[in-house]
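worker-03 picked up job from queue 'complexes'. Input manifest follows; two sequence lines, order preserved.
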Amino acid sequence: MSSYEIYIAYSTIVRKEIQRFMRIWVQTLLPPSIIMVLYFIIFGNLIGSRIGQMGGFDYMQFIVPGLIMMSVITNSYGNVVSSFYSTKYQGSLDEMLVSPMPNWVILAGYVTGGVARGLAVGTIVTSLSLFFTQLEIYNFGIIVLVVLMTSILFSLGGFVNAVFANSFDDISIVPTFILTPLTYLGGVFYSIDLLPDFWAGMSQLNPILYMVNAFRYGILGVSDIQVGYALLVISVFIIALFSYCMYLLNTGKGIRK
Amino acid sequence: MTYALEINQLHKIYDNGFEALKGISLKVEEGDFFALLGPNGAGKSTTLGVVCSLVNKTKGSVKVFGHDLDIDVSKAKCLMGVVPQEFNFNMFEKVQDVVVQQAGYYGIARDEALRRTEQLLKQLSLWDKRDDASRNLSGGMKRRLMIARALVHRPKLLILDEPTAGVDIELRRSMWEFLTRINEQGTTIILTTHYLEEAENLCRNIAIIDQGDIIQNSPMRELLKTINTETIVLELQKPLAQAPQVQGYRLLLVNDTYIEVILNQGQDINSVFVALSAAGIQVTSMRNKTNRLEELFVNLVTSNKTDLKGVSA
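worker-03 finished. Artifact:
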């Protein structure tokens, strides 16, 4: 295929993916927005006013970057895992597999779809947060870079989950038992400075900590982790997961008989 | 000579150890209308799955118009269109979108894809349904949608895995006409089917696969010539107590108003009619007991099973 044909194939998947989550916006865009508003009200306003300051900021200001990042992570992951699995389940994945489109285009198309939903929900949540607090941007470049890299990373993660999933139950196991706990323990609601040394050290094994802190740095200018180090960690995870996804696609594991 | 499809020593062993293909070889000429027949589980869909890159082969080679799947899979895929056995499109997508998206996967720009989709959906009488969710189509319409989807990138080789399964007779005949037309226009067609009448009417060449082996591969006409007997069923005007005797012919009484005439190769039915007429027996209708190819197919598959039992014993 020529570069132009590859571009058409890629944009066909991206268009299909965006149309999919826009068509079912009540399931894809509305729930995370409502959940985040509840977080803002309960943790930010009601409980946050009693907590006082965290990391030199109002508690509400402190948790907003983490909550935005949390919605980006869960929605990027959720979009790819549910879309790719249902494509596999219905058999319509064959439409792509019989075509001359290279495997990396299939992966890039689904990841872009996941990033698009992650960014859409992230934008909605950010806009809603402005009703509860003021956000000042410390470094716009870092914000964009971190949010993009994070959504790419979790879209790749969703892809791996979808490849191995054999039932709709399998696509909810990782988000429920791994992703959600890691997100809650990833410094969304607290600074790891508050933790005893042992748990602070353990927290550094959690990749989400790096994303939340790098994003928080972009907005507030404070972070528990060095931003350069955080970006490096995210990059390593992206390269590793991308390579693994390509291995799965090229060998046909979980996809071809 | 470049073949539309050339399979050499193709083996497939699944992860559970089941050997679905035992080194089959097959050649399909360009422009052919080719039938791949076999009982359930014989290896037909596995063969086509390997050709379409949906099943990983264990060993062997596959070439599509000279392009080896191991070397030049992209070019080979561009030349093939696939209509699978099961409905495998996104049931929530609109009919038109299913076809347009498939065109996109082949790198066809959206404007051109829309134009081709309109043309195909009109040809297959689906244009009125273009905005319907594909899940709302009837079984026959879903089959036609898969044919439209397989043709949107104008393949030179069309592979159909049981395309008329579950389709009513009227629709089946209109699909036969459509497939015959595109074959006449130059598209090579490979078809698997359980309707042997379909294979006999449409296909010029045939291969029969059983238990992972090709047990027959020849032109349809030559294959049909090998049939030694043919059974004709005659309906009689008045009931008979026993089968009439006609010299040189074997007649069996099925029930009091039906008899079967077993014709050997070279025998004609006229002598039977003359003899029956002379005996005052009036025939009101006649038909073939079974499709000729069906008879042959059953014989071949049964004798293959017997041979294998002999080998294993």
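worker-03 released lock.
The mean pLDDT of chain B is 87.
The longest strand of chain B covers residues 19-28.
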